[in-house]
Amino acid sequence: MPLVDMRDMLDHAYRNGYAVGAFDLVSLDFLEAITDAAERCRSPVILSLAESHFEHYDFELAMAATEAAARRAEVPVAIHLDHGASLDSAVNAIRLGANGVMVDASHEAFLDNVERTRAVVAMAHACGVPVEGELGYVAGVEGEDAEKHPGEVVYTSVEEAKAYVKRTGVDFLAVSIGTVHGRLRGRPKLDCERLKRINQELRIPLVIHGGTGLAEEQFRRLIANGVAKINYYTALADAAGDRIRANAKANGAAGYTTLVRGVRAAIAEEAERCMRLWGSAGRAAEVLMQCRPWRSLQHVILYNVEGAGDAAVDALMAEGREVLARIPGVRRVVTGWAVPDKPRFRFCWLVEFASRAVIESYRDHPLHRAFADEKFWPLAPDRVSVDFEALDVRAEAAPPLRRAAN
């Protein structure tokens, strides 16, 4: 099954009264365990990579593996940047394959949070990518991830939530109603009345950070009051740690592969438990039918040049690769020369867009306009362009090709 539009996925969950798990991964064991769990119980799933975890892995390499796993998965998948720290972080995540991003300015004053979030929303929406914002502050208490979120809990204000969504245009809102990052101490007291009023005012999918340790009835109340996405990590990390400690106790001389034996199964068991509890299990087929597939788009230009030698063409290509790659939504820029045998066109560009939405934003972006108007078009009057989406044989047929002179 293909990657699917994350906005469609969470809108479906919101309308139908269940929540999709956004499971943070920090290694291939986590990645494979989460996808295995989703496939076993036929659940949609969000593969989440948190910027607060980047010290544990190379983000670019992890994203490449995550996208590969998502595209071969047998259930609908979305890829999400969790706790993005900046506009640049969101641009980079989309370039690497994320089709959902979160900007976390929840620790800042309200107006600063609005300003930073609005900038990310404008960029991401031009790429067709939905945005999660956060209002209020979910602090850490104890456990592996708690130190990443210092300070005290700040509850989300109903009035500020309404103003924040209106001013920023976020698609989903992470709220603070009593959960914490990391492990809980005792039974949390969730302000579900506050959550209910937020949901009544906003009517958009709500998000809970800090899902570890909540009781079954608490999860059910969250989902009944608009929560469609639950972020989950600490319990997965604890399951992995418990397995490693048990392996070490059983064999004090164990090497790495022996120590991590069974880790994937332990993570998968906990992830599957959550999927069944949150109501997403068994919904893969209906989600796939009602969600748009997420496909990158290839923008191809074939051309000849006039009044320029090969060295000038090389320089033009090098400049274009550098300039155009900086435009949000551009995943890669490839330039090439035709092989011999007297082709109709001697040169080509291949610019990969994150989605079809990027066609318009790329065309109008100042970097593209300046390069095209001043550098490329004057040298290449003889050209043709084609935009196409790659077909996925497991998905429905793609829309017709779009052809245009450019």
From TrEMBL:
Signal peptide: none
Any GO BP: carbohydrate metabolic process
GO molecular function: tagatose-bisphosphate aldolase activity; zinc ion binding
Residue intervals of the Stress-response A/B barrel domain: 297-388
Pfam family, one: F_bP_aldolase
InterPro entries per record: Aldolase_TIM (IPR013785), Class_II_FBP_aldolase (IPR050246), Dabb (IPR013097), Dimeric_a/b-barrel (IPR011008), FBA_II (IPR000771)
GO CC aspect terms: cytosol
Protein name per the record: Fructose-bisphosphate aldolase
Organism expressing this protein natively: Sulfurifustis variabilis
